[in-house]
Amino acid sequence: MKETQNSIGAYLKAHWKTVLFLVVLLIGIGLADNFVDSYLRRLLNLCAIYVIVSLSMNLVNGFTGQFSLGQAGFMAIGAYTVAVFTVPIESRAAIFYLEPMAPFLANIQLPFIVALILGGLAAVVVAFFIGSPCLRLRGDYLAIATLGFSEIIRIVFTNTQSITNGALGIKSIPTISSLWWTYGTALLIIIATVLLINSTYGRAFKAIREDEIAAEAMGVGLFKTKMTSFLIGAFFAGIGGGLFAALLGTVDPKQFYFTLTYNFLLIIVLGGMGSISGTVIASFVVTLGQEALRFLDEPMAFGLDLPIFRPGLRMVVFSFLLMVIVLFYRKGLMGTNELTWDFIAQKYHAIKQKLSRKKASTEGGGQQ
Amino acid sequence: MSLLRTENVIMQFGGVVAVNDLNIDIKKGELAALIGPNGAGKTTAFNVITGVYTPTSGRALLTPTDPTGQATEIEITGQKPDKITGLGVARTFQNIRLFKELTVLENVLVATHLNANYSFLSAMLRAPKARKGERQAKADCEFLLERLGLIGLKNEKAASLPYGQQRHLEIARALATKPQLLLLDEPAAGMNPQETDELTDLIFKLKTDFDLTIFMIEHHMDLVMEISDHIYVLDFGCTIAKGTPDEVQNDPKVIEAYLGVDADVED
Question: pTM of the entire structure?
Fold first, then answer.
């Protein structure tokens, strides 16, 4: 007993900054949960979901080096699983008014958490069938196959009227409005991913990204390892999709156009392919940034009527900002680095040194 | 007892016969060398043995000793490279293939993956088994880095290492797979005479300390003649000579292949 206390004490001493950060973060979420208005709350929830899905994409694309574009499809599977299994039985007749729900599903209602995990697992099963042929090949076949898959799944969901209610979508899904669901899940997934990446599996992923031939020669089974990464990624994306459905309270196939995937692709490129903290930062920057620039879409008058402020300008400016970032940070904001305390200290010292050198040089210039 | 045998291995790429009728027999505990002019098919032979290529015909047989001391002959032709590595064959590459963005320690740790005994789920939950496995792997790898004089660089990125140390790191990484047969593809390429001498000593020491059988491709003739027990000479894919260093050195065919009939000197 005493020994465990000691080891906990030692752990706290070694990681006090991290523990402190987590405590502050949890208090912050708690405060935000109670005092934030519904608009900002939804936005923050969306940020957390984007963190989850982007992380799942970065695991496959950034860490394992396999170009997969199926995130929207896996999200759709997760979202529809949650929708189908959590909609209250009494309101099902009203939702499925064109064609009644399939009898084998009509009377099953599951608790949210069970449906959420089921959604993740369903995504895993589908991912297995896509991955089995594609991950054996080298090159970009996976990108094409996953892109095709996410379109196929959308069309399948549009046409399976008795299960998914087709193009009408499913409404009145019991919503989650608390930040704890999304942030709790995001936090768990971040921690699990960090632990995975720092284990032998994470190193095997990175080895495949760096050099497939060498990785194989060092005993890393290419297919098995790629598959592990792909399935874990699909599971996380499915979970993210499930939360997405429960956040909005409604799902329909149009939400899962393949353009949704490009949001996540953008986030991981911006944050750094192969950086967990970069993904988290970029998820917030992109999600909040798209909202913050919304004023550009509204007509504005500075004395005279400027015709450029009209819907769509937001995306123009946003694209421009992205180009600037990609020009100056070619490997994304974080590259493959992680935001650790050491990294922060290092950056802090570098900036301090730069400033003092600048100061010295200007002083030197003054003397001449 | 032979550790690795190949029987009439032929490797053809379209009309090019890169390796023609290769028959080698490497005894356990010996140091064999594969030499030959550039383009003779030496690296192709290695690629066939390690499973990168499946030979057009013929087969390769490995007789690894399992932990209980039992030795059984297994056919390795057509098996995946990671399976062959798991059976105890490790290699280095002629054109260095390190995981450039990973640290020196991580590079070596990758090679312990096949001996990892915990699942990805226990890694994600950081179960005691995963923690123990991780600690053990780290200790093993640090020991190897110590042996190869790289321990001080363990947190550097592999790409930032100077050339000679990158070669050492490749050897450390190969050793981390716990091999019985180590294939070295031109370990001394690009090294000066002093570095080559040091490497010779190192290879000898590693061979005895890790109980290895070594098969290597090398161009430095003094190194090859000094340390090998057996030499195979390839030219245009064909084995033109095999035997002890003395036998090979005096073989007229070898002299012809290396020096040409007109004796236009090349080294």
Answer: 0.90
